[in-house]
Amino acid sequence: MLRKLIDSPWTYFVLAALLVGLAVVSQIESVGEDAPPGTVADLEALAERDDLNVIFILIDTLRADRLGAYGYERATSPNMDALAARGIRFGEVESQSSWTKTSMASLMTARYPERTGIMRAEDALPDEAVLPSEIFSEEGYKTAGVWRNGWVANNFGFDQGFSLYFKPLADRSNKFVKRNSPSAHQLAGTDLDVTNSAIEFISNNKDDRFFLYVHYMDVHQYVYTDNSPTWGTSFSDIYDSSIHWVDQNVGLIAQSLFDQELLDKTIIVIAADHGEGFFEHGAEGHARSLYREVQNVPLIIVPPLRLDQGVVVEEKVANIDIWPTVLDLAGLPPLPGAEGRSLMPLVLDGAGEGPEASELRDRALFAQLDQHWGRRNKESDVLISMLDGPYRYIVRANDPERFEVYDHSADPLEKEDLADGGDVTVKPLQGKVDEFLGSGGPVWGDSPKVPVDEMMQAQLRALGYVFTMTDSDELRRRQEHAKELQDNQKWETD
Ligand SMILES: [Zn+2]
User: Fold this and answer.
1) How far, in Å, from the CA of 273 to the mean position of ligand 1?
2) Looking at the structure, do residues 125 and 179 belong to the same domain, yes or no?
3) Does residue 393 share a domain with residue 307?
4) What is the pLDDT of residues 25-67, one digit of tens each?
5) Ligand 1 centroid vs 274 CA: distance in angstroms?
6) CATH of the domain at 237
7) Bridging pattern class, strands 391-396 and 399-407
8) What pLDDT band is residue 182 in, cutting at 50, 70 and 90?
9) What was the pLDDT predicted at 181?
10) What is the model's pTM?
11) Which of 138, 307, 335, 456: CA 20 to 30 A from 429?
12) 311, 339, 361: which is the final residue of a domain?
């Protein structure tokens, strides 16, 4: 009974509510002196240890280029920058979709969307899917997941392997939090609810090995606080303020690890499911295209030792590589059938000259998005993006004649479509896409379908797109569009 009470999310909520007046740190104290110094070679020995915890921090909707560690000029992310400076930062990371559920299903199973089959609103991961949480659980770790995005909820199969998996109740006493978006206010609470639950879990399990998955949502929601720096009034500016707020939450978790002397036995992973567009290609938001602004995400792995200069891996890698890498680093069994690869050869081989490193470097990386993911009455219309050499090649599965090509070496922001001028021979690129599609569909057959009822639809809709309403014509167009989407039973969540 006591065990049950301790494991109940309600207990966490009550305990979290007791953390009144929790001071938000602006930056982790002593972040450089909490763990023993080490070298890249020492990373290999981590696999022999049996006392390591893993914390996976997923920041929904976070594009890489808005973090200081990735060269951004605004000080949006002092805590994540400090963690990156002592750990491993991957400079070019491709998410596997620009919509949460497709992206997270791939990230967690290390398989491309083509192989998970999770592309539409009602698709769920089947029992046959193996998640890292199941491996941790089998290896004797305590496991918990805390999230605020309904697309990774229990009924979509993301709870497999977790003994605790919940959305924390909203603490409505946090009056200082602002929500400057037309729809975001409908998601109750803030990421501080997630942080408080996470810190309670950490302190309750500090004497055991644990795996904790923390899924933050306030960047998606454009939430920030009175204490956040403000850089302007556009959605892009407010987005930056919300990154600073979520970075403070990351700082609170790191501070709690420091306070409980766990930083020398915890691997921290910071990642994102997709980015956010600000009209680079005519739209604001995500879940509608596969361009760089929604595809390029951060990845920071902080080992339980202090790397003097930090390690930066500049090769292009993918979110499906995250778990193969972390499980490899921690000496745990791999995910079965993973298409992603351990990136440790790139980390350990600084020059990147070994055969494993060059094989990783030469891979093509894929992403997919069913543009009709939320429209029950419409057939699938899957976009495929392939990064290959200097190129991003985007093509429609239903219509290979419609494609775009961008050359990152000359055009990193993907502004100039080379397909227009016929400057690139696309046949080899399409050949690789055909090979990718031809090498087998969903590995578990058709995914189970979750009947999405009215109440859940309303909840998912409440998560909302964020629109920039610049003039009345635009506003009217958005309203008409929203009504059309509603009529089509499209869920306004991404
Ligand atoms: Zn998302």
Assistant:
1) 5
2) yes
3) no
4) 445 544 545 678 888 889 999 999 999 999 999 999 999 999 9
5) 6
6) 3.40.720.10
7) antiparallel
8) low
9) 61
10) 0.87
11) 335
12) 361
